[in-house]
Design a protein that fits this description.
4 strands; Glutaredoxin; 112 residues; four-stranded mixed β-sheet; 23% strand
């Protein structure tokens, strides 16, 4: 391995372990599902940013939680985040027009 790729690996891991979303979810969260439209710009921008920035950090720091992303071709689809809890009903959060940091904060504070 070259030093350059080693530095890149270090940078990637440092990025995954720090920043928004680099936290453990509640112990009773078993699955997180994100539904976003792949067309349209307005209501889904925060959810798309959450998908690319915060979700990888959450996945890295919560290996026992299943993360699922559904990209819908219908531009009228409203972005939503579904949080599944162990042996309890899921909680659905409507996230249109929200900033990605707010979405991440809602996920981290979610309770059944």
């Amino acid at each position: 391995m070259s030093l350059r790729s080693l530095k890149s690996t270090r940078d990637i891991i440092a990025n995954l372990t720090t920043g928004v979303g680099a936290q453990k979810l509640a112990f009773n969260v078993s699955k997180v599902s994100l539904t976003i439209p792949i067309k349209g710009k307005h209501e889904g921008m925060g959810a798309k940013h959450f998908l690319h920035e915060s979700l990888p950090r959450l996945q890295y720091n919560n290996p026992s939680v299943v993360f699922e992303v559904a990209k819908n071709v219908d531009p009228k689809t409203k972005p939503e985040l579904t949080i599944h809890f162990n042996e309890q009903s899921p909680k659905i959060l409507a996230i249109p027009s929200l900033h990605s940091d707010v979405i991440c904060d809602m996920l981290l504070r979610a309770t059944p």
